[in-house]
Structures
1.
Amino acid sequence: MSKEMTIHLKYWKQNGPNDTGHFEEYTLDNVNEHMSFLEMLDVLNEELMLEDKEPVEFDYDCREGICGSCNLVINGQAHGPKQRVAVCQLHMRNYNDGDHVTIEPPRAAAFPVIKDLVVDRSSFDRIIEAGGYVSVKTGSAVEANAIPIEKEKSDAAFDYATCIGCGACVAACPNASASLFTGAKIAHLNKLPQGEVERSNRVVAMVEQMEEEGFGDCSNFAECEAVCPVGISISAIAEMRKDYMKAVVSGE
Amino acid sequence: MPSLIKALNSQVGRKFMTGITGIGLMLFLIGHLAGNLTIFGESQAFNVYTHTLESLGPLLYVIEAGLVFFFLYHAILGISIWRQKKKARPEGYDTYQTKGGPSHQSLASRSMIISGTVLLVFLVFHIMHFKYGLFSPDEGTVILESAGGVEARDLRALVIAEFQNPLIAFGYIAVMALAILHLAHGAWSAFTSLGMKHGETSKKVQLGAYIFAIVLMLGFIFIPLYIFLTGGEGSLIAY
Amino acid sequence: MKFDSKVPGGPLEEKWDKHLKDINLVSPNNKRKYEIIVVGTGLAGGAAAASFAELGYNVRSFCIQDSARRAHSIAAQGGINAAKNYPNDGDSIWRLFYDTIKGGDYRSRESNVYRLSQVSNEIIDQAVAQGVPFAREYGGNLANRSFGGAQVSRTFYARGQTGQQLLLGAYQAMMRQVHKGNIKYHPRHEMLDVVVIDGQARGIITRDLVSGELCRYEADAVVLATGGYGNVFYLSTNAKNSNVTAAWRAHKRGAAFANPCYVQVHPTCIPVSGDYQSKLTLMSESLRNDGRVWVPKEKEDDRHPNEIPEEERYYYLEERYPAFGNLVPRDVASRNAKMVCDDGLGVGETGLAVYLDFRDAIDRDGKDAISAKYGNLFDMYENITGENPYERPMRIYPAVHYTMGGLWVDYNLETTIPGLYAAGEANFSDHGANRLGASALMQGLSDGYFVLPYTIGDYLAKQEPGKRYGTDHDAFQEAENEAQAQIDKLLNIDGNRTIVDFHRTLGKIVWDKIGIARNEEGLKQAIEEIRELREEFWQNVKVPGEKNNYNKYLEFAGRVADFFELAELMAEDALNREESAGCHLREEYQTDEGEALRNDEEYSYVSAWEYKGLNGKLEETLHKENLEFEFVELKQRSYK
Ligand SMILES: Cc1cc2nc3c(=O)[nH]c(=O)nc-3n(C[C@H](O)[C@H](O)[C@H](O)COP(=O)(O)OP(=O)(O)OC[C@H]3O[C@@H](n4cnc5c(N)ncnc54)[C@H](O)[C@@H]3O)c2cc1C
Ligand code: HEM
Ligand code: SF4
Ligand code: FES
């Protein structure tokens, strides 16, 4: 039979972007080990509502670790204690009876808080907008097999393309840098022949946008790789840097 | 395309230049240590070395200016990166911890700004101390036979005398220990900033960085420590 | 209400080309004068918005999530079909068409399905050009696999993340147009109503989910690409924000809703573990290639599965369907799992699960070979359940996965409201009574990239360019007032049951009585129970928080309110359809062997429901679009 636990929660409440925010505490009994972390928060909210208190807002959608909506910082770790797991896929069996759990939103100037644990990540959209695409119009594509791509190359591009855009890398980075996210998209597209043509413009535009959004510089802490739910390697950042310097030097 | 200046000022460019200047400074430190170790050479070797440097004339100024430029550029970049970090996360976490695994967060990487700032302050003191001979009685002069009998500052005597002062000797040692921290992360990080990928090579470079930092700095530490412990009369020092 | 499917005449192969020749075009200069609203940024909406903008139209795009990239399509795992015939195994546009019609149990429109197969190839070209990293062979060409029981390998895939990669392709194309200013982008906006003026769709009302403000947007045409309604079951494999609100409110404004009772249940999902469960996770169907499905022969046998000897195991699929065994289609596998559990043979704490056992496969091929094929799925299973599937059989159970029903559309994807289009899972087209694996992604992208960009031009060309009624128009005012009134009402009830509680209870009714198997008595009960619960919902629901702030529970309350109405229509539709077809199994209409029994004489039609009102009970009128099969012959499916 499944284990039940008591968990002491401390979570961030902030009524809007201009509110200063504070922590609230609540002790949940009967936390089932099979619950996901977000289901535990659902249960918390059910109890709060029945006690006529305000539920705590948090972002989620797929609950399968793929949409990138969820992004809580739990006891100081983005997506909680396990590596390569998004918080929606984190299960309570990773906790023990009586544990104290602090939940905070990702904190970064470029991710302003909307409410409680929900933040505005539109800065990520704008980074993609700056150049994270291949300029091909619908209908103008060539036959799919016209350009063969080595399997290794395609697999390598895929490894970067799996980024779910959750922002954990920013949350965990001591500098609040978005280099892993930005680098992953640049590396994905620049590695493929389809993305080759625009590689220089892409990297320059995306790096500029990333800076404009107010993210920090990358000091090579590699904490982003440790918290990334899909394990994007900081090689993405190296690729971005090389492509950027190449673009500048060649002046293309 | 952005102008070169703008590019070097971008987040990628800034790190690229911290890496370049960092590597430049590390190369300088290797040379500096090699020079310093002549103190254990034949009796006037150290003075010959310092004298040769001083007699480079205008060339020395160029080298010095280059060094100062590298140093300041590096320091300014380091400080600006640190300041941007404060701006990028105005409100910190209540609780924060690393997830380990591939993370390079460590005492070394998190204290770059502290170790760097100490190095900066130290350097100013160090130059005033040995280059301009401030804070200490006038050093004497020596006649350098091997350099054709010229008269030069007896910096060797100064060094040996100064390092018998525990405050100075251990002050230097402490700074060098901090420099180990700076380089343990720095010597790996610089290559990453220049585009080295993460993987097997990178692991080796990280290990190399630790070894390099420790060996280099033990070299620097050895001099004051030896002089202090032996009262300047140890057998490695020839008179 | 008039139902003209507008299917062009002529031979099947030429219909689409002929149609393209016949439809009106909008001149490039005029395109700038038209504005199109696209609600939804999944594969269908994302592809449509990007393509419209590339053509030169002004586009406004809306989605609920904080970014277009997070639409539910992101979660699709298995792959996307196309008739490329790269493996040279005899595939063709005709075969893909035929499989889709047959898979849909002859309840879809031939012309639409044929067009879908025709454009399927272009989708792959388009995706590859966008940089979608599909799986490749060592030679550098694209790889294919067979999927969902198809006899040819026509599925393109990107590891287990095909939906993600395709969606990112569409999202990126969209963001490119946002950058150019051709798309105005409104994430975190929920559409609450369509505005109809003089019988034409002229705009929408949305709620800005951050500020809580209601907003009005006017346009020349509106596209709903708002996904499926699987979440009416509360537990499903759909993303938590998937909902029927946009489609339902359009329905209430006059768009017919087609085949609401056609719901696909996926046989291999991780079973429910407790009341707190918020959603179900799909495990790829490919697991059935090597896993054997069984339950203990004895009821309430609570021995460890590995201790149950071979002769006391009931391999029910292998026994009942010797030819296909564990690889029977989704609906057959799901139905049988439910049957054995209803007989009390189910396993696990809840008794609602069957074993999917890899013991024999591991003995045969070795653990490494199995791990190479399914390693990531096994890890996922272990992460969720805490059990190691290499050592203990997986427990699986069917879960709601896809809804074939949706807004009725004609060949142009236009609903019964002129100027209102529906695309992707939100419409009813193409899949009939059952969808084949890897065909939803194909349909969404086909609608968005290759159908709507043409057909919407045909409509716009007939509209006066730049004509505006202004958002002060009474119709906008009225729609906004109604939306506001509902929000106020929900917040003011202040009852003592939570929204989740109501939704879960509703879901249970729908699952038990309008789920895998239905019967007249159950459906009639369901209708009563739904009405009662809906009544209670409006008296006793507790919605927290404020209307002028971010308020997720308020959003959910509105969606649950719509599910309550839809659920009744689903039951009504299932009750009306006195036959079994595809995923719709009426227990009264089965062969002696328990197989679905179609009634082509009387039910070879699309049920299109017209909303008439809601007075304690839902009032709807049924319209029938007869399905003519000119090109294929109707056959009874058999997997024996
Ligand atoms: C787990 C899983 C795996 C699957 N695997 C496959 C597979 O391998 N192959 C395959 O072919 N199919 C698969 N499917 C099915 C397929 O993913 C979906 O049918 C398809 O992605 C639907 O796409 P869509 O564009 O129609 O809608 P969605 O992707 O659901 O997008 C709906 C959009 O509408 C928006 N929206 C909804 N309501 C509103 C509103 N009121 N106001 C504003 N915006 C709104 C949402 O924000 C979202 O942007 C799978 C489905 C699931 C659940
Ligand atoms: C002999 C002197 C020095 C050497 C050899 C040295 C070496 C290095 C190296 C190799 C790096 C890594 C560069 C990179 O990550 O790309 C580095 C980083 C850094 N250095 Fe120095 N450094 C020296 C002096 C200083 C000084 C005086 C400061 C003054 C503040 C300083 C501050 C920093 C900081 C803050 C970083 C980290 C930059 C970041 O966060 O990205 N360093 N140093
Ligand atoms: S790189 Fe990893 S951590 Fe960063 S946004 Fe992408 S998936 Fe999230
Ligand atoms: S909710 Fe989608 S990744 Fe967590």
2.
Amino acid sequence: MPDAAGNAPPILKVDGVTLQYKTTEHLVTATYRVSFEVHRGDRFVLLGPSGCGKSTLLKGVAGFMSPVEGAMSLNGRTIDRPGPDRMMVFQEFDQLLPWKTVLQNVMFPMECAGKWRGAEAAARARHFIEKVNLTKFADVYPHMLSGGMKQRVAIARAMAMEPEILLMDEPYAALDALTRRKMQEELLELWDDVRFTVLFVTHSIEEAIVVGSRILVLSPHPGRVKAELNCHQFDHTAQGGTEFQTLQRRIHDMLFAERIEAEEADAHG
Amino acid sequence: MVDATSRIVPPVRPEFELRDVADAQFGEVERPLSAFERVWNQTWVRRATIVVVLAAVWEIYGRTLNNPLIFPAFSDVAQAFWHDFAKGPLLSRMLTTLQVLLLGYAAGLSLAAVFTTLAVSTRFGNDLLSTLTAMFNPLPAIALLPLALLWFGLGIPSLVFVIIHSVLWAVALNTHTGFKSVSDTLRMAGQNYGLRGVSYVRKILIPAAFPSILAGLKIGWAFAWRTLIAAELVFGVSSRSGGLGWYIFENRNLLETANVFAGLLTVIVIGLVVEGVIFRAIEARTVRRWGMQR
Ligand SMILES: Nc1ncnc2c1ncn2[C@@H]1O[C@H](COP(=O)(O)OP(=O)(O)OP(=O)(O)O)[C@@H](O)[C@H]1O
Ligand SMILES: [Mg+2]
């Protein structure tokens, strides 16, 4: 239902969420009272230093972890378990099923969820494999692919499902600079095409500005919200421009302010 | 004076750029392997060569020793094997053994499946399986034979009982370990597609743990085979319809040493066929093709 200003309601609502890991000896608070909203068509970026709980937050949204405090809902329904309406591209390379070829890997979730079957699923899979430029490798098993190629398969697999929201955990972190840039451009082109909604995790400020339309900046461990910024106006062509650099500087200062304060405190103490 | 090592400077060399890299002369880029190389690259050819060499050594040693009662030559054994296989009791003994073996193996596997299912789905099942395997896995199956004879009498049920014991724990332990070591990422990927319960186990856990499961099946097979032959040596199902173990025992008593060797040879050949043909074929088609094992 549209609100007073005529905007559609957000599809993903994260409200005061605290996520914790309990091991036999420790209790680790990964994120503390994080809130944000993602609207349809957003390229929403979670940005923060390593270990600040970005992956954890994504796992929460995916339904693999339940919050100890706060609530998360997708289209008004509380998130309580994983499901194919939130497809995840993991940070790790071993997310492809080694016993299936590239094509079968892309088809697998479609058939599991029963969304598409048989020839239709195969056709969709081929279409998205082509989009990530892996047509030649469709019938190859994952162990014969490079790390970046595996990641692209995972992206194709997630996109082909047309999820409500696409969850991507540093999908390009392990790629070389050239491939990464190409993949970022492809993602933007695809977005122009399909207008999916994506929640994207990265620790690269530059990548956040280029890929995202809105950035949630998280503080170091445990992750808390530091700021939410707009960056829909920037793409690769804006890179190096003054506005781009101002924003980059601003985020940089935000992320490293604490360290500078801490260092000063150390120096005085 | 400044330390000499701190002043090492690499020489400045002229730059260069190559044109026509594409046309440059490579060494050998691609050439078909010679016929010998291709044949020799086949694993079975290399292994068969080893077997032939061993047989030849055996034959020479047997002839120089010239004491067929203690150590018959390979040709004598082959002859005895052929004779007993075609006309004598060897074939039927072998079939009896295989029948009991398959029965026990299948029963052991089914029980292992039940135990592992319990273990992956409940914490109690997990503790149960861990405790039971820790207790029973080190216990040699043959040590249970006297007890089995007491409970089930002289016959197939006793044999099946000890085979189950030797298969169950090894297979359950391996399968369970395999399930436990499936990576979190794969598990999450599977759950992400909405897989749950049985379909999750069937479509994600079993294939992901397949290398361990296969290893368990192989170990279980070897254990079952050994246990059975040993048990048959002690008593022969019922002596009239005994198995291979009985055949070996019987011929020793008759001092037909060549036939004893023929019986042992049969045991070895069956082992080789199962390991080298059946399990190898499964491996080549699954774990090796998937790059989960080399
Ligand atoms: N399985 C786990 N058990 C216990 N603690 C964990 C576990 N996974 C992560 N943590 C802890 O939670 C915190 C957040 O981890 P998380 O993986 O979410 O970080 P991240 O922001 O994704 O970092 P990176 O950019 O390096 O991927 C870290 O302090 C980490 O030590
Ligand atoms: Mg992470």
3.
Amino acid sequence: MKETTVILAKDNLQGLLRKLGRDKSLVAPVTNQWGDTLYTEITDIDGTELDLSKQPQASLKGFFFPQQEVIQTYDTTAGYEFTPQRHIQPTLFFGVRSCDLHAVLYMDMIFSSPERDDAYFARRQDTTIITLACTTPFANCFCNATGSGPFMEYGYDLQLTDLGDRFLVEAGRQQGEQILQAWGHFFEPATEEDVQLQYQLSLEAGGRFQRKVEVEHACRILASGEVDEQIWQQLSARCADCGGCAYVCPTCTCFNIRDAQQEPSKGERIRSWDACTFSGFTRMAGGHNPINSDHALQRRFLHKLKYDVEKHGKPSCVGCGRCVDICFGHVDITTFIEAVVED
Amino acid sequence: MYTPKSAVIKEIISENHLVKTFRLSMVDSQGQTIPFRFEAGQFVMLSVPHRGEAPISISSIPANPSFFDLTIRKAGLLTSAIQEMAVGDHLGVRGPFGHGFPLDDLLGKDLLLVAGGIGLAPLKGVMESCLSWKKVKKLTDISLTLCYGSRTPEDICFRATIEKWQQDGVSCRLTVDEADPSWQGEEGLVTGLLADQSSSGDGYALVCGPPVMIRATIARLQAFGWSDEHILTTLERHMKCGVGVCGHCHLDNTMVCTDGPVFTLSQLQEMKVAELG
Ligand SMILES: Cc1cc2nc3c(=O)[nH]c(=O)nc-3n(C[C@H](O)[C@H](O)[C@H](O)COP(=O)(O)OP(=O)(O)OC[C@H]3O[C@@H](n4cnc5c(N)ncnc54)[C@H](O)[C@@H]3O)c2cc1C
Ligand code: SF4
Ligand code: FES
């Protein structure tokens, strides 16, 4: 058995998080008074109840790439000087789902090219991510079809699996191993049976997906051929141009940059989320738009299921299913995949 | 990557009622000029105080790194605000970005520029480079041609430059969509000037202008025997980052800001661009 696989009794979780939260901010899923489960910054671990039973409604995207952030301030008093703004906050994320960590690993790649994106990596640096494997996938989940869950194989600092009264804890990256070493007294050795049980649970989880989304099949079709024009038209006709899918999507990283004047000679340069599905996304000064409105959804679906497969060897949809919930026109990515496969 | 550097306006040339050329130098914190190197056809992301950024082509010859020109047409907020600025004012510049024209392939070859309106801006540096190469190498047998269309005589940009080119032996053919009493030259679309512009085989045709003009011009050039590899154009798209990340300039799997903005016709054909209809 690997030394990096241990047991954490559930009774010890609070104590461990209290220690880990001493030199880092702590973020974990909490259900608020309105019933929304969100990854939430926790300031008082003893007075906060974590909710590990639901899928957080928003991904981790906003922690590293906020919906709006000031990337520079500028000053025109003497010349025209820009000062980069960086937000560094060492943070430990606990209870992160596999799909969401896969998305963070994808963003790490996107924001590394052609150069390191300083604003993103200022927030991302010095963070620790502890995942919770999904033994029971949620209603819209299909991460099994995108190769991004329900259990992680790499990329986590620690991965926890719920074994009932205890968690099996695996250390992936160095930071996870350091936690096991530094806080050894919270953990016990794992037995052969514990590891067997985790394996059993991962097999069962694979059989518990309620949706069967044929991602690989669709990617193969997209790699080799054109999508029937009618599919684009039908989907675009039902798209309300709200951008909700791109906003909840943990891997949608398109952005806008604009200036906001604060004083006669000072202002801020703001980066904010954008969505390629917006009709204004490609519109140029004078009103010309090189992308016709029937193809508003084309970029989003092909980027995830075709271009990223060509570029990075796998689709950049992580199967979290959030867009299924948010789209009232039912033109989320699973509808597209079904249409392509059926065609 | 996203932090603009300071540039100062050294000179302003009014091209017409909507267009001005700004000669800029990059400066350090002491106001000393610092070199700025670029290729003809590349663009910068230009910051204007409180108005954000816009992609603008560099319109000058790349030979002298101590200054560069931006020729800007009033189109909206940023491009109007800059028209009010004066010599000595500061601007922000990121870049240069994108791939320019393949000058190594173009020098010493026959060259045909086909431009509409301000579309001449990104091509201008190429003509100047080829012209000075022709002079230095004393190449008497290569032909340099400009076919340039404007809406009205008032809209013609780069008049002084075109006159100088003419004196230097460039065949400059101008046309306007709508003539006025002062206009002695040709009338009609720029494609009308292409009738005898057949390909010399290894010559290059560079095209830039509004999408319809690009489409019509390319069709003509193909009909006159120009090969798809020797027709080059530069595309305009909505751009925010200039470095391939923000997504705005997407064209299938291509990002115009980093993979372009200069493309050969063969490349465009693979991408199904709006410019080809
Ligand atoms: C590679 C390239 C080279 C260009 N070269 C020149 C040039 O040499 N001279 C020139 O006059 N113009 C050029 N343009 C067009 C110029 O960028 C637009 O006219 C300018 O962005 C309009 O900004 P505005 O604020 O004045 O217009 P507004 O209509 O007020 O802008 C509205 C918003 O849309 C965005 N936007 C609109 N059109 C574009 C666009 N084409 N690209 C990016 N963002 C856009 C702006 O950023 C702004 O946020 C070029 C465009 C590209 C892509
Ligand atoms: S998509 Fe997979 S990893 Fe994400 S919450 Fe659902 S089951 Fe868990
Ligand atoms: S301008 Fe941002 S990707 Fe091209």
4.
Amino acid sequence: MIELNDVKKQFGDRQILAGISLSVPRGMNYVLMGPSGSGKSVTLRNIIGIVRPDSGSVRVGGMEVPTMDRDQLMALRRRMGYLFQNGALINWLSVAQNVALPLQEHSKLSSSEVDDRVQDVLRMVGMQNSAEQSPTDISGGMKLRVGLARALVTQPEYVLYDEPNAGLDPIISHQIHELIAEVRDRLGVTGLIVTHSRACAVHCGDRIGILENGRIGLEGSVAELTSSGHPLAKAFLGSGAD
Amino acid sequence: MNAPQLVGQSLRKRVNDAGFVVDLLLRTALSLGFLPRRTRFTLDMAFNAGVRALPVTMVVAAFAGAILAMQTGIELRRFGDTGVLGTITALSMCREMGPFITGVILAATVGSSMAAEIGTMKVSDEVTALEVMSVDPINYLVMPRVIALAVMCPLLTALTDFVGICGGSLVAAQNLGVSQTLFWNSAYDALASSEHFLPKEVYVGLFKALVFGTAIATVSCAAGLRANGGALGVGLAVQTAVRNSVILIIVLGFIITWFFYFLAG
Ligand SMILES: Nc1ncnc2c1ncn2[C@@H]1O[C@H](COP(=O)(O)OP(=O)(O)O)[C@@H](O)[C@H]1O
Ligand SMILES: [Mg+2]
């Protein structure tokens, strides 16, 4: 369960988050939509403890994130995966090494166990044949899948997805959406997905929230939102949206 | 905004930047315990730095030595004292010119690429990704680079010193009528006549190189880590890295010479 309550965050004199509240029940995918620069990534960063809110409460599994110390944050991050826009792979490591990185740095697994785990997640995202390639030699969609494998390799309970389909063509996007839905259904992962894409919201979202002026302006299931006729719902989920 | 406010703001920013660099250096020192796990990567970094900087450094060193011999030789010739040319070239190469040349070239070649690499990682969220995986960017990215340059800079400086003296000897022989034997003998005497294992000029020079290497890597990594705003931000980080490195090389070079020759006798 991820819960934000009245979270505020200001950068300089710009109020980015102005009291956002949302909650993601266990095993659900929550889709967070909103215009560029509205603070979606900042919201995700609050949840994983890279950014601390000015006020308000951020809870993951009942534990308050902003007051965690270093060790608690590390423990939290082991239970949480984060998929970055474009994958954010380390480009001097191979695909397999990238995926192994979070395991090598902290877990006490033997190297053959690490290899097995890496192979498993790579197979799940359909990248088992590119394990030895360099991230510079693979396409955007493949990078994203490797990024997802890296997020999943620690067997997290939660995954945060930051624009998992930005800049991808509809076919590749569709594959990613299926993977996100599969991660929820097969692994029981609780997901928070930031996206602009209507297809993504429809395909993976159990609940949709739309950011407006630093808080959730509209929230509900896809069906509720589309039938509401609200201008925000029209802008992000209407037939004109993509 | 009026002038005093602008000055105040710019001053605050400088102090803030300097604080970031010092903090980064301290945290790098605290993460030295990770060095055994990063040995491979550190050696790769050191090797790359050496290979990248070596050709330019050697060319510049040869010419710098030649200029040094020429400059002093022209004056010495008036006093008919060109016999000490080897001594002067050797000592000033080892104490000042060698570390300075090596430092500036490392800043321009290796420091700039460190800032570009880390800056690119920063603006494409790779640094954040490391944090999210609980991999500390300081011991993963910064510490190996700082150690690599701290080791490579003195090594390259030793080579620069030698090549510079060779450059000087050519000019001495060709243009100033100082025989190779005389030049090298006086150079050797200058560097060997010492109660220490190495003469002061050499170890002060190598110590300078060590400090320069550390400073260049730290400043460049700091610039990279503070990059933001896409490709433009990376460009600015590279510019900041090279500018700050060169300023530091000059200021630290002065301070170290002053310390060893005036303060500590
Ligand atoms: N660390 C930071 N320092 C200053 N400003 C920031 C920082 N992180 C984000 N911002 C600003 O906050 C705003 C929202 O950013 P972000 O959450 O990335 O937007 P998006 O909704 O597109 O993901 C942007 O205008 C960005 O410039
Ligand atoms: Mg974003």
